[in-house]
Amino acid sequence: MNAAVPVAIALALDAAIAEPPRRLHPVALFGSLVAVFDREWSRPRIAGLAVAAALPLLAAATVALAVEVAVRLHPVAGALAAGIVVFAATSLRMLTETATEVVAATETDLSAARERLRWLAGRDAADLSAAEVRSAAVESAAENLADGAVAALLAFALLAPVSLPAGAAAAVWVKAVNTLDSMLGYPDKAHGTASARLDDAVMWIPARVSAGLLAVAALVPLSGAGARRRLASLSAARRWAAAPPSPNSGWPMATLAAVVDARLEKPGVYVLNPDAALPSVETSRAGVRVVRAAGVLAFLLAALLAGVGYAFAPEVVAWL
């Protein structure tokens, strides 16, 4: 079965149902497992290193076994199983719908918008203005494009042409690393240091690929002078990308700040595109649309890479 097929299945499932039910969602189940290890340790850094090494491998091995069983039953069953795994490891529609809801709520109910922002961003929103809430929503949509779609898709596309179980395991391993970082990777949690550093390494390429996809998604509808102005603004995004403390998140966020020409800011931490105004409702909606388009491009890119890889997989296996 062509390795591009599971990517197509995942995109179709994302469009149709957005997310698996929470009580059955593999990421939620993995989060429950991580919570068991989120406690005080006598040697927190050693414990954190063991957690960062073991838990993603456990999740990946479990998925690889399940997909291997499906492949042995029938190639179609294997492709379907791998597609479900990729779907569970990505979250494009839910991401963009949630960001859209937060932006809309800033017009009608700022308290509700602040509350809903917690679904996207782990920051205290109690004192944020409506524009600052919109900024946080747009920033998070850009950052989570890398975490919630591009990283797992690239991991799958890399290994799936050789083995669907290996590709599914790679996607889940990356998602597990992201989940560990989101739950443990805080400065006040010494046992999360290893998870945070591992996530920094894993996300280096996906963050930059996400920035490229955002740029392409924003440039495609333009032509002539509009495209030239947008390209000029993207050159500044490379400078802004270093502003956030993360080595990776600044790339997609700065790129989106450039393409929608809006100031994106986490008060007291960083400012992207400082000469622009904070995003209006319409600018924020445009930003979310760009993220949605870039996410679709990510699926298409993964399908292309997986399909091309599948064509050459026999030669690669023979060479190895």
Structure overview:
The protein has 13 helices and two strands. The protein has one domain. The longest helix is centred in the last third of the chain and has 39 residues, at 281-319. It is globular and about 55 Å long. The chain has helices at 4-17, 26-37, 44-73, 75-89, 92-108, 110-117, 130-159, 164-184, 193-202, 204-219, 225-240, 250-259, 281-319; strands at residues 264-266, 270-272. Helix 2 (26-37) packs across helix 8 (164-184), helix 5 runs antiparallel to helix 7 and helix 6 (110-117) runs parallel beside helix 7 (130-159). It has a two-stranded antiparallel ribbon. The model has no long low-confidence stretch (mean pLDDT 91). With 320 residues, the chain is an all-alpha fold. Helix content is 74%, strand content 2%.
Please work out how many helical segments DSSP would assign.
Answer: 13
On the 0 to 100 scale, the average pLDDT is 91
Q: What class would the helix/strand composition place it in?
A: mainly alpha
Radius of gyration: 20 Å
Number of β-strand runs? 2
Tell me roughly what share of residues is in helical segments: over 70%
Sheet with most strands: strand arrangement: 1-2
Unreliable stretches covering 5 or more consecutive residues:
none
The run of helices and strands is HHHHHHHHHHHHEEH
In what range is the share of β-strand residues?
A: under 5%
User: Biggest sheet, in brief?
Assistant: 2 strands, antiparallel
What's the structural domain tally? 1
Approximate shape: globular
Distance between the termini: 21 Å
GO molecular function, one term: ABC-type vitamin B12 transporter activity
Subcellular location: Cell membrane
Function: Converts cobyric acid to cobinamide by the addition of aminopropanol on the F carboxylic group.
Main location: membrane
